[in-house]
């Protein structure tokens, strides 16, 4: 199994975390960002979007990080990490897609300006707007975690992976955050998992 991407990508973290939870260790081929390589004819033949991650497993090539997570969980996982049944999958996928669609753009504006740009290069208005939107969305997850340990129940599932990768940067950046105790406790539980430590808690760059 091969995984193309870079360790500091939120979407690549998601795929690597999933693999680590399943005791899979795909070969990481570093492309994207400072590594380049995503515009080559060879890479575009696998992923015409020119984005990361991209997974190859036994001849199957997949892109889109949530699709990669679902595939790995369905092929190599088992309950409770892999949801069992239509209803359980729907509950998990709701949170996967919510994090990936609602948080991605505001988080990108916050992260790019706060972490990847110098103070002179920052768009402070975009950074603050991104922070405010994220701060307005995080209470949705906090409320869901009020009476459960993880987003889809009392055990870690694929539901937690997309938001967990955002949460790592959210709690690591030097920014103003709302006081959300249930979200913070959930994040603390994630940080105690070896797979999260190795796949997600890499330097923010």
TrEMBL record:
Signal peptide: none
Domain GST C-terminal: 85-205
Domain GST N-terminal: 1-80
Sections of the chain in a coiled coil: none
InterPro entries noted in UniProt: Glutathione-S-Trfase_C-like, Glutathione-S-Trfase_C_sf, Glutathione_S-Trfase, Glutathione_S-Trfase_N, GST_C, Thioredoxin-like_sf
UniProt cross-references to CDD domains, sorted A to Z: GST_C_2, GST_N_2
Pfam family, one: GST_C
Protein name in the entry: Glutathione S-transferase
């Amino acid at each position: 199994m091969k995984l193309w991407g870079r360790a500091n990508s939120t979407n690549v973290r998601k795929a690597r975390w999933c693999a680590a939870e399943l005791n899979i260790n795909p070969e990481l081929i570093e492309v994207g960002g400072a590594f380049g390589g995503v515009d080559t004819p060879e890479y575009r033949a696998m992923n015409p979007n020119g984005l990361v991650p991209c997974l190859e497993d036994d001849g199957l090539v997949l892109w889109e990080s949530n699709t990669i997570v679902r595939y790995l969980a369905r092929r190599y996982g088992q309950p409770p990490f892999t949801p069992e049944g239509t209803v359980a999958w729907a509950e998990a996928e709701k949170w996967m897609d919510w994090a990936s669609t609602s948080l991605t753009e505001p988080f990108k504006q916050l992260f790019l300006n706060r972490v990847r740009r110098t103070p002179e290069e920052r768009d402070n208005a975009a950074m603050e707007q991104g922070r405010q939107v994220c701060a307005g969305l995080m209470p949705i997850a906090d409320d869901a975690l009020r009476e459960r340990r993880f987003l889809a129940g009392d055990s870690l599932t694929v539901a937690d992976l997309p938001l967990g990768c955002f949460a790592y940067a959210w709690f690591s950046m030097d920014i103003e955050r709302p006081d959300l105790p249930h979200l913070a406790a959930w994040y603390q539980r994630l940080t105690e998992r070896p797979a999260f430590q190795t796949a997600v808690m890499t330097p923010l760059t």
